[in-house]
């Protein structure tokens, strides 16, 4: 199993799990950490979930 960590597209912190979401009217997909996902999803009519990216990949 390999481990890959990447930065959150919103806050730039390193995250082992990121969520693919849309959070504004631009409809651009971004990968964000769990904390940013919760913040951006709260009371947001433009929020759309598109999947989960994980650092640990199965072979």
What's the quick description here?
The chain has 59 residues and is mostly beta strands. It has 1 helix and 7 strands, in the order βββββαββ.
Question: What labels describe this entry?
Answer:
59 residues, mainly beta, two-stranded antiparallel sheet
Widest β-sheet, arrangement of strands: 5-4-6
User: Unreliable runs, pLDDT <50, ≥5 residues?
Assistant: none
The overall average pLDDT, rounded, is: 91
Helix content: 10-25%
The biggest beta sheet is recorded as: 3 strands, antiparallel
In terms of quaternary structure, the protein is: single chain
> How many strand units?
7
Verbal overview:
This protein has one helix at residues 34-41, and strands spanning 2-3, 6-7, 14-15, 17-22, 30-32, 48-54, 56-57. It is mostly beta strands. It has one domain. A hairpin with a 7-residue loop joins strand 4 and strand 5 (30-32). The longest helix is centred in the middle third of the chain and has 8 residues, at 34-41. It starts with a strand and ends with a strand.
Sequence-ordered SSE layout with sheet pairings:
Layout: E1 2-3, E2 6-7, E3 14-15, E4 17-22, E5 30-32, H1 34-41, E6 48-54, E7 56-57
């Amino acid at each position: 199993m390999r481990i890959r960590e990447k930065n959150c597209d919103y806050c730039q912190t390193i995250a082992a799990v990121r969520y693919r979401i849309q959070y504004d009217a631009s409809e651009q997909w971004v990968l964000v950490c769990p904390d940013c996902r919760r913040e951006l999803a709260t009371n947001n009519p433009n929020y759309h979930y598109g999947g989960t990216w994980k650092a640990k990949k199965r072979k």
